[in-house]
Amino acid sequence: MATTSIDHPSTEQTALRERILSLGPWFHNLRLKGIETAPDHFLGDYPELKFAHFRNAIPADLSGKTVLDIGCNAGFYSLEMKRRGAGRVLGIDTDEHYLSQARFAAEVLGADVEFRQMAVWDIAELGEKFDLVLFMGVLYHLRHPLLALDLIHDYAARDLMIFQSMLRGSRDILKPEPDYGFNDAAPFDDPAYPKMHFIEHSYAHDWTNWWVPNRACVEAMLRSSGFVVESRPEDEVYICRWTPHEIETDYPSCIRSRQR
Fold it and tell me: Are 101 and 26 contacting, i.e. CB atoms less than 8 angstroms apart?
C-alpha cells in the first residue's frame, strides 16, 4: 500500500518543524503549512479559540486599510488582518523573541507584514495614525495603563480600536454621580464601582501582570481616553470608535519631546 506524506514527512516539513521548535516556546498557536506552533497550549488552541468569538465583529474586507497591532506577540492578529486585505500592517512588541517568531511566521506564510521592536510609549515616533488599532492583552502588563490609552488615542488611532483586557471582580457596572463631596459617602467599596486591582509582585506566575481591572473600570478608562464602546462581542473584547478627546492630556516631558 502506498505511503502518505503524513507517514513520511518531507524534508521541508521536517526542517520547518525543527525551526518552529528552535523558536519556542510559543504563546500563539499558529498553523504554518499544517504544523502547529503551540499544540499543547495551556489555554487550548489559543488565540484561535478566543478569536472565534469576535472575528465577525471586525470588517471582513480591510482592503487599503492600515493596521497597528500593539503587543503583537507572534503575530496571530497581524497575520489575520493581512488575510483580510489590509494594505499596511505593522506589529510592534518589546520582546524580540516574539518578534522573531512573528517575522518567521510571516515569511513562511508569504505575508507582507512589518514587525518592529517598540513600546507603546514610543508610538508617537511612528508619525502616522491607523484605521484599525489592535490593543489586546497588553493593558494589564503596563505600569501606566491609562497613559497608554491616551497615547494610542492621540498618536495612533483614527477610527477603530479592538481592545481586550483580563478582567477580575464584578462584571456589574455602577454609574457614579458626576461628583461627590469630600465628606459624602461615595460608593468606592461597591464591587461594581470602577476599580483596578494592583499587583505588587506576581499574578498567575507572571511578574509582568501589574493591574487587573473590573468591567466598570475598563469601560470608564476607554471613555476617559476618548473611545466610544460600540460593542462587546466577547466577554473581554471591546470594539471601540475614536472620538475627539475631551481631556487635555499632560504628558511627561520625555513623551512631549517626541510629539510630532
Answer: yes
